[in-house]
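#lab-general

N.A. 3:47 PM
ok so I finally got the sequence cleaned up, no stray characters, all 57 residues accounted for. can someone with queue access submit it? mine expired

B.Y. 3:52 PM
send it over

N.A. 3:53 PM
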Amino acid sequence: MKHILKCLSCGKYTLNEKCGCGGNAVTPKPAKYNPDDKYARYRREAKMPELKERGLI
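B.Y. 4:20 PM
back already:
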């Protein structure tokens, strides 16, 4: 079964692994949430400097 993919370069949606523009296409869906995720705290800590830089915190 094929899934819809989004190109990283141009942002268009496609069913192929490679977009017509030559960029790679990836699944646009976020990862599933797991309340037992042992590494969530570390991911949040790694994102913190970027969020502060953008003024979101």
